């Protein structure tokens, strides 16, 4: 494993058994904290979604439109992960929803201890009685976030049409770990060679039965299925 982020590397990178040992215990500690985060979130009366994708696939834009659609009926809180800047949290706050910005200062993913800190800050900003749904937008990266449980209840992976429909098989750990895949920016389908059929086939080859929805956060095409997914999740 990579000793900065814990991602899977080939064995020849690390002959040192100690490195492997340290990474294993890091991941075990992360898993423990993630489990505790899940309990914490449930105590808050909420469920959490971890959003993962490459930089720019549309995670924050998805959240902006989701907030517009749900904010009168669902109490939403957002934890934003980025290497630097407060930009994404500012975009969420502009929609009238509490947002905490976590900056990793270089790390390519969020981990459970960071999210733990974020949850405490989010609790502090709760307006009238807390949250129903907490979104955790991970650092834009299709590799590193896969290994780190943050304490979410659902993991949603986005793949946007300009990125190419061959990506699921190239980033298998991320797509295999998804509960739902969103094929985003469908309004751009006429301009790219993205094949929805290929993307669906590749993702479902990695994880049989994986649920996949297509949408555009710009035009709103397909958005109602996503909103339906969230409403069903909150019902259970
Ligand atoms: N055409 C089109 N553009 C979109 C859509 N969704 C997002 N975008 C654009 O894509 C760009 C990146 O969107 P963001 O929402 O910032 O992407 P992100 O995944 O949050 O990016 P990072 O947080 O940097 O990883 C912006 O210019 C958006 O306006 C969409 O459905 N259609
Ligand atoms: Mg973003």
Written as H for each helix and E for each strand, in order along the chain, the element string is HEHEHEHEEHHEHEH
Radius of gyration: 18 Å
- Would you tell me the overall average pLDDT? 94
Beta fraction of the residues? 15-25%
In helices, the fraction of residues equals 25-40%
The backbone outline, from C-alpha atoms, is: globular
CATH fold-level label: Rossmann fold
Distance between the termini: 37 Å
Helix count from the secondary structure assignment: 8
Provide the low-confidence segments as ranges: none
- CATH homologous superfamily descriptor: P-loop containing nucleotide triphosphate hydrolases
- In what order do the strands lie side by side in the largest sheet? 3-2-4-1-5-6-7
Q: Describe the biggest sheet? A: 7 strands, parallel
CATH class: Alpha Beta
Model description:
It is a single chain. By secondary structure, the chain is of the alpha/beta class. It has one domain (12-235): 3-Layer(aba) Sandwich (Rossmann fold), CATH 3.40.50.300. Helix content is 39%, strand content 17%. The protein has helices at 17-43, 59-70, 87-93, 112-124, 167-170, 172-176, 196-206, 223-235, and strands at residues 47-52, 76-82, 99-103, 133-137, 154-160, 180-184, 211-214. The protein has a seven-stranded parallel β-sheet with strand order 3-2-4-1-5-6-7, sandwiched between helices. Helix 7 links the parallel strand 6 and strand 7 (211-214). Helix 1 (17-43) runs parallel beside helix 4. The longest helix has 27 residues, at 17-43. The N and C termini lie far apart (37 Å). Bound molecules: guanosine-5'-triphosphate and magnesium ion. Guanosine-5'-triphosphate binds next to helix 2.
